[in-house]
Amino acid sequence: MLKRLTNLSLKMFTVLFPSEKPLLFTGANSTIQLASLAQASGSKRPLLVTEKFLLQLGLLDEVLEYFKNEGCEVTIFDGIIPNPTYEVIEEGIRACQKNDCDSVFAVGGGSTIDAAKVIAACYSNEVGVEQVVGLLKVKKPTLPFYTVPTTSGTGSEVTNSAVISETTTHQKKFVVDPKLIPSAAALDANMLKSLPPHITAATGMDALTHAIESYSSVNRFSDAERDAKLAIKLLLEYLPVVYEDENNPEARQLVALASFLAGYSFNKSGLGYVHAISHQISAHYNTPHGLTNAVILPKILRFNKTVCADRFANLERMLSGTSAGSDEQLADRFIARVDALGQQLNIPSGFKELEAKHFDAITSKALLEAKSFYAVPRLMNRAQCKEILASISEGVKAESPITQQLASITI
Ligand SMILES: [Fe+2]
C-alpha cells in the first residue's frame, strides 16, 4: 500500500512538473549548429564549461573560432573534475560573474554538464550552491544553457538533475528541477571520438541500464516507453560496433542518440534496483558507475523476470521480429542478449573488492533509495539484496581487463 502511494506520488511529480526534451541537433559538426542557435538567440558572452584535455586535444578549436568570428566574447572555464565539488562549481559561478556571461555552453562528460547546469542555475538565481540542492529549489530560469556531450551514457544532456559532491565529505548531493534541462543539445560524432573502448563500454552499459530500468518501471508514459525501446534496440546493435571500431562515426552517432533517448525515458519513468545498489557499491569502493551497473544489470533482470516476463518478451519480439515462444522463453532470450553483450564488452562478472561486512549497510541504503525514488516492478527484501551482493563478490573468477582500465576513473 505504502509503495503504491510512493509510485503514485512519483507519477504525479512527473505529470505536475513535466520535463521537455531539449531541441536536438545531431551529426558531425552539429556543435556549430548549436553555437549558431546560441548566437542567434542572443548569446554574446557565453561561459564555455569544459575539461582541460578537450581543449588540449583541439576539439574546441572550431567552436571557439566560430564564436570569435561572430563577435562573441567567450569565457572559458575548464576547471571541471570528475564528481565536481561545490568549490569547483563556485569557481565557475565566479567566472560567470566576472565576465557578466549571458549563457552557458557546456562541452564534456556527465560531470561537466551537471556542473554547468548548477552554475547556470546559481548565477541567474543569485544564490550559492547549497541553496539549489534538493527538489525544485531553482526559483528562476537558468541562464540559456546549451550542451554537447562528449560521452554517451549519463543522459545528462536531457535530464532534469545534476549530481554534485560536498567539498569536504564528498557526499553526493542532488539538484532536481525541470529548469535544469538544457535549452538545446548537439550529439556530434566528432566530439565523441576521444572515447577509448573501455569507457565506451561502461558508459554505454549505463545508458542500456537507464533504458531497461525505465522500461521496467511501473511509472509508465507512452513516449518514455517508446524511447526506451528504441534506445535498447540501438544499444544492443551498435554498442559492440563502436567498442570494436571506435572510429565508426555512424555507429557512435547512434549510440549517442540511444543515450539521449534513454536519458529522456528515465527522466520520466525513473530507475530501479540496478542503480539503487550500484550507487552504494560505488560509494563504498569507488567503482565506476557504468561498469557497476553493467555487473548488476543481469542479476536484476533475473530478479524482475518473475513479474516482468511479458515486458521482456515484448522487447525480444521487437529485437527478433518473431513472437514464437512463450513469454517466459522470450524473456530468457532477451536476458541472454544482455549477457552476451556484457561478454562482448568484457564486462566482469563481479567485483572482488566487495566485502560481506559491508552488505548490511549497502542493503539498507539501496532498499531505502529504491523505496524513496523508484517505481520498481518487484519489491526486494534484505535477504534477496544480500544474495545479489554475494553473487557479485563470488562471481569474480579473474579480473577483467576493463576493471583494471577503469580502476581509477569515475564516470
Ligand atoms: Fe546511470
UniProtKB/TrEMBL annotation:
Entries under PROSITE patterns matching the protein? ADH_IRON_2 (PS00060)
Instruction: Respond yes or no to whether keyword Nucleotide-binding is given for this record.
Output: no
Q: Give the InterPro entries listed for this entry.
A: ADH_Fe/GldA (IPR001670), ADH_Fe_C (IPR056798), ADH_Fe_CS (IPR018211), Alcohol_dehydrogenase_Fe (IPR039697)
Instruction: Report the residue ranges that make up the Fe-containing alcohol dehydrogenase-like C-terminal domain in this protein.
Output: 200-391
**GO MF:** alcohol dehydrogenase (NAD+) activity; metal ion binding
Taxonomic superkingdom: Bacteria
Domain Alcohol dehydrogenase iron-type/glycerol dehydrogenase GldA, by residue range, is: 25-188
User: What does the UniProt keyword field contain?
Assistant: NAD, Oxidoreductase
Q: Which Gene3D superfamilies would you find in this protein's record?
A: 3.40.50.1970, Dehydroquinate synthase-like - alpha domain
Bilayer-crossing residues are none
- Could you confirm whether the keyword Oxidoreductase appears in this record? yes
Q: Which family does it belong to?
A: Belongs to the iron-containing alcohol dehydrogenase family.
What is the protein name stated in its UniProt record? Alcohol dehydrogenase
Which species? Acaryochloris marina (strain MBIC 11017)
